[in-house]
Amino acid sequence: INKNRKINKGAFDIVLNSTNVETLASELTEYIKEVSKNNPDSEKPAGLTEDEYIKMQVNQLTSPWMIFFIKYNPYLVLKDVKCPVLAINGEKDLQVPPKENLQAIKKGLIEGGNKNVVAKELPGLNHLFQECTTGAPSEYAQIEQTFSPVALQEMLMWIKNQLK
Q1: Which of 31, 48, 61, 140 lies at 20 to 30 Å from 20 by C-alpha?
Q2: DSSP string for residues in 55-111
Q3: Share of the chain above pLDDT 90, in %
Q4: Alpha helices of 18-63 — where are they, by DSSP H?
């Protein structure tokens, strides 16, 4: 996990500091080649050559959505939000760390002067607000529940409180 985190941080830093998509692609290709050389344990999908695997990763990291996602700073928007906010995360969310995410959202809103902020971590729920065992994305499709009644109830109670 730590090795992957370090590798991802290196790639994300390249994206963050880039100003040109063409140069970005070549910088990421070189970075991933170097990382792959020093990391023989990396899991390349069966049937792909090393070059195909690297190209696949570079294409993913240079897609317009991913560049936006990596460079976007939600604080710049959060500080301007003045309406009531309910921010919720599932405790077992492995895609968006709940504690850090909720603290950052609340901080941005409050620093912008928003006084009506509720941030809540919902026990036992994953990224999709499903009751789950592990929270792993691979578990999503195996769970029959679309959306936890607990999360729905939390939202309903918050809305009712706003209408008082």
Answers
A1: 48
A2: HHHHHHHTSHHHHHHHH--THHHHTT--S-EEEEEETT-SSS-HHHHHHHHHHHHHH
A3: 81
A4: 21-37, 50-61
